[in-house]
Amino acid sequence: MFSFIARRIGTILLTMLCLTLVVFFLVNLEPNLKKLAISQTEMHTPADQLESWLANHGYRQNFFARYGQWLGVLPKHPITDPATGKTTQRFSFCNDPTEPTFSGVLQGDFGCSTKFKTTVGAKLFPALGATGLLMFWVLAVMVPISLLIGILAGMREGSRTDRTLSVASIASTATPEYVSGVIFTVIFASWLGWLNGSAASASQGITFYNFTLPVITLAIYGIGYIARMTRASMVEVMTQQYIRTARLKGLSFGSVVVKHALRNALIAPFTVIMLQFPWLLTGVVIVEVMFRYQGFGYTLVEAAGNNDIDLLLGCSLVSVFIVLITQLISDVGYAFLNPRIRVQ
Amino acid sequence: MQIEYINAFDVVIGVLWRFWPVWAALILVMGASFTYKKRLGLYGQLFDSGVGIAGVFICLFWLFTAIFASTISPFDPLAQVSVMKDTLPGAIEPASKLVYYFGGDKLARDVFSRMVYGSQIVLIIAPAATGFALMVGITLGLPAGYYGGKIDTLLSFLANLVLAFPVILLFYLLVTPGIMDTPIPYAMAGLFFLFPIIFFCVLFWTRYKNRPDRLYILLGITLVVGGWIYTGLVFDKDPFKIVHIDPNQLNIFVAVVFASSPGVFRIVRGLTMDIKTRDYVAAAQTRGESPWYIMLWEILPNARGPLIVDACLRIGYTTILLGTLGYFGLGLAPESPDWGTAIKDASRLLRSFIHPALPPTIALMSFVLGLNLLADSLREQSMKD
Fold this sequence. Notes:
Chain A contains 14 helices and 4 strands. By secondary structure, chain A is mostly helical. A two-stranded antiparallel ribbon of chain A has the order 1-2. In chain A, strands 3-4 form a two-stranded antiparallel sheet.
């Protein structure tokens, strides 16, 4: 087991290295650098000054050297004035060093956000906290509801409850966040006026009034999928011999479901819930933009829209890490929950 | 100027009437399918359950809407009639006396016509991108599952690499205006569009390599048709000017194929690993058939059930992806009538007007729902066998 986890963590690190290299390549394409230089300098700056801005701030160094600097295996250099030899900080708003230092991701320095004029860490981690809060409430709503729907539907396969709930879960998987968000806003905010169509005030403190719409919008897309997986797993368990034995022993249907079927039927949904995280990440971006909630997704969109290189790299590192670590947890957890699976 | 309105009942009747070519085509196709359902195989079996009928109905509805879009929609989706700005549903356009059935949006365009034309964009890109993703996934997934070993490790690592990207981040990196100045989208298009040609060449080669009369005809057709479409799509140099794609549409197309082919790859790989242990594969190996013959003519046909179901779900998912792209304003032109862009434009103004938001949302939802119902019913039917 230990060597399995160690090998998986090795793969995760390799994957993160490859992916950040790809992202690094894409954000450093020539048109993107041009866009960055234009947004960081005064209006109508002539082309040669844009070029010198890029060169001054180290964007014209060798691609791999810059990747190494970001990673922290090569030293970052300050701006050196060629005439006087005096050094100045690359970005004064980030407390960049005035002498060459090793300061990259490995040292815990995620770089400097050119859009928000602060360090990436100062922007990214509060945003992650805000998104974590949103995720917590989404899972708290999504998991119990979807498991309940799945179990009720899978208990008696082919019954009317099963058919109704199955069609309802199909309908929910067919409703992406930007669709359900619009429909919920129309119903609950514009028409009934019960809830707030914007979660911008949720940064100060979440209330039922401003936080319900983002949470249910995010939850509804996942509910259908998890419910269907739970249903499939429940249907399979209910046909097993030991369920029939329990029924023939004279146990009531309810107690067979709760005591015998449930435990075995919940193994598969555990994996599915864990693998939902990558989807939730995309959903988070849509919902946070739609409801103006200042979290991770909002930061990602701002970073991508302004080609904020370091912030975007930080965002991709975080999201790739979340995706991979949830996969690992789901595999390990599955092996723990299901004694028939043994990991070599 | 005072705008006149027709009442809600007339709006409903008017909309239903505008869809007349769709109803006519639906009656024809559904009627024929019902009559001959015994002879239509898997497609015929769909008509045995209510879910299946609903799925086929919704999918065909949008298919015919896309085909007859120019007849159905009363206005040009991009035309702006300034007096009709933000009008409510049922407003009569003073010049032509035609009705804005679902009202006008903030740029005074007809919401109804835009919804109808939006179906065209979705129904062209989504199935085509899914088709290419299937080709790429199958061509790579079969050897990975069949040979295992190093090929499998490498291809699986690459697939997991793409799958580890949150889709939205991938799109923000791949579908930007700047990237069209670089050769990246064209290189990726050049790579992905090679796969169908390779697939069909290998398919015919393995089957007919001992029958040159058939082989050369089929290979010739594949290369000529494939090469023609390839030059049209990748280089935009189709000599007959028929196959043509806008650079930004090509960019979207490539990004969508790139994002969804690893999923197909995984499914095909899993199915191949399962099927290659069957007796008929062992029999083919004993006969001395080549590995690619076994993969394409023994394993692939037996994996078609789950693949068809997955293709249905994937078209729906691609539709959602296209909507996401539109919602974030990536790739598609800002005035494009596709549903995602329409939802984006309308959702910013929900506080004042809700009517431009509802038609595209309901359209997108119903189309994806139809595909999911279809997939569910197909899955149930194939489980029965």
